[in-house]
Automatic annotation (TrEMBL):
Any GO CC annotation of this UniProt entry: plasma membrane
Protein name: Threonine transporter RhtB
Primary location group: membrane
Membrane topology: Multi-pass membrane protein
Presence of keyword Transmembrane helix: yes
UniProt GO MF annotations: amino acid transmembrane transporter activity
InterPro entries attached to this UniProt entry: LeuE-type
Localization (cell): Cell membrane
Single Gene Ontology BP annotation: cysteine export across plasma membrane
Transmembrane annotation, as ranges: 37-59, 71-88, 134-160, 167-188
Keywords: Cell membrane, Membrane, Transmembrane, Transmembrane helix
């Protein structure tokens, strides 16, 4: 895959709603864009934590190990479900603010299935010199997409949360439960 095709596929993948994007939007709503801005770096660190070892070492190993792949999906689903429970049970009006910390964004991103797709399917397993341009595009795209999700949360979701304080956390929790169920379903072969 050439860099242009990679950039387009990556942008489309990262723009789709998912666990990390949900957390970023909620953080933008609860903390505002400026206060939540450092979470972009945390997201990037989470993606790189997963993607670099996948591209470097795990790609060839995982091709012949579908059970390991399914276990990773189940662990990801469990983590997303824990986040959903935290968002649902957090007291209003700070429902979103109680969970959206750097460690939550980091671990959610580390276990995000998008990282697996990027590391195992989009970035070619090659030498470091061939991989670096892909990683540079990845870093830039994550910055742009994370900014968009933070801005969405800061502008749109924040306005809703002032009128209905618990609604944002509860809706985000519902999205996260949906993602957890779809991950678990894929892992056990139902989806």
């Amino acid at each position: 895959m050439n860099l242009a095709a990679f950039a387009i596929a990556l942008a489309l993948l990262l723009l789709t709603p998912g666990p990390t994007n949900t957390l970023l939007a909620v953080a933008g709503a609860s903390q505002g864009f400026r206060r939540a801005w450092p979470l972009m770096g945390v997201e990037l660190a989470g993606y790189l934590t997963t993607i670099v070892p996948l591209v470097t070492f795990a790609g060839p190993f995982l091709e012949g190990q579908p059970v390991v792949s399914d276990l990773v999906k189940l662990c990801s689903a469990a983590w997303v479900l824990v986040l959903a429970i935290r968002l649902w049970t957090a007291p209003a009006p700070t429902a979103a603010d109680t969970c959206i910390k750097g460690r939550c964004v980091y671990w959610t991103t580390v276990m995000n299935p998008k990282a697996l797709i990027i590391g195992l399917a989009l970035i070619p397993s090659a030498g470091i010199a061939e991989t670096l341009p892909y990683l540079a595009v990845l870093c830039m795209t994550i910055g742009v997409v994370a900014s968009l999700w933070l801005a969405l949360g800061s502008a749109v979701i924040r306005a809703v949360s002032h009128r209905h304080p618990a609604l944002v956390g509860r809706v985000a929790a519902c999205f996260l439960v949906f993602f957890a169920i779809s991950l678990a379903g894929r892992a056990v072969g139902l989806v």
